[in-house]
């Protein structure tokens, strides 16, 4: 009896201590939520109008998801915060929204880092630890705030595929994990967990299919974070700048004198100004990269029986590092080192925060072909835009055989007597100015602005010719700008080339 009475007293005292602790420290007890490091992100954004590059489209609001990692940093998708003008974040256990700001953003890998200046926001929060790349058929958990409710959503999915795919935001080919849990609007940027560790970030879903989602895996996340460690500046994933074909055909292998070699892929194109330009040659057969054998289909062995395309070897590198290429040229095995310097494709990837470049002359509006411009066609921009533009992004034009630095585009014509007959011209790729080939937008603008010829003759790739008389054309241009409420004849970057100042609104 005495022993039972003593145990009862001890349990009673413990019970009252727990109750008293809840009463005296409610903020401490209730703030500890197992998913308090999963955040809802509220973003106000204002995108530029790439068909009227002197103005923006106006403010819009969206929501996304994110999570807290080490160093009081918030990890999310770049597309969640692109073109932002104001960002707030909210925890599961706290109804208050905190103002956040971007500290780094990578458009190529669709990742961004945010932080909150208020130190109270991170108190009591345990950041997620990084896990390993999951394996096929393993289960992962997706957390976030998809549309349809305001509370946190938790779903499970099975890893069905691990491969290199084009990321929708940038079209860059990077490693991704496919799961059978759908990624819906609002889920973007949310953490993907396995055994309580972060193994990915929800990125995009396949609209035409059910329950197919893609996540950004930890190798891509860690590359993004490592890139920032040195100077806090993100430089992106390097690219070698080559196209290759398989060498499965026996006759082809004999022709290129590789019938006694294992594997190998045939180099068919080298992009001008890329790291491989001037080092490798068309017709080389790549056998290995950094000592890793390349098979006849362009893949290499990755984790047991899995295989990935050779681009992943390059993607693992940081910018300015070197890579060793073993190849066969004219039957001779050679090896060369290539420094992975920054390279911008002929059609530049999204820049978002940067204002688009433009120049107006005689009512003709010129700019540079970019992915930003193409995406302004709408959600299915790859189906709705001019084929002339898509030719340079995904067609043979992307090989840049004319070795251009940029594609100059006539966007539209602002009607005036000086350009009568050309009013319906738009989306034209400019080929020549006064008989000279166009290689870059800067060269085009300088030649146009400072010309002394009586006439300006513009030829496009559709064999369209526009001829303007230059007498008093700058005054005519000013009048056209005034009628159309356009604040400046050119963008700020063009103003620097011309040594002039852009009027501020």
Main β-sheet description: 7 strands, antiparallel
Shape estimate: globular
Distance between the termini: 88 Å
Low-confidence stretches: 1-32
* CATH overall fold name of the largest domain: N-terminal domain of MutM-like DNA repair proteins
The number of domains is 5
Which architecture of the largest domain per CATH? Alpha-Beta Barrel
- Work out the radius of gyration: 28 Å
Count helical runs: 12
Helix content: 10-25%
Mean pLDDT: 89
Class of the largest domain in CATH?
Answer: Alpha Beta
Number of E-state strands: 27
Beta content: 25-35%
Kindly name the structural category: alpha+beta
Q: How does this model look, in words?
A:
By secondary structure, this protein is α+β, with helices and mostly antiparallel strands. The protein folds into five domains: 30 residues, no CATH class; 85 residues, Trypsin-like serine proteases (Thrombin, subunit H), CATH 2.40.10.10; 91 residues, Trypsin-like serine proteases (Thrombin, subunit H), CATH 2.40.10; 98 residues, PDZ domain (Pdz3 Domain, Roll), CATH 2.30.42.10; 140 residues, N-terminal domain of MutM-like DNA repair proteins (Alpha-Beta Barrel), CATH 3.20.190. 20% of the residues lie in helices and 34% in strands. The strands form five sheets. Strands 21, 22, 23, 24, 25, 26 and 27 form a seven-stranded antiparallel beta sheet that branches. It has a six-stranded antiparallel barrel with strand order 1-2-3-6-5-4. The chain is globular, with a radius of gyration of 28 Å. The chain starts with a helix and ends in a 7-residue tail after the last helix. The N terminus is likely disordered.
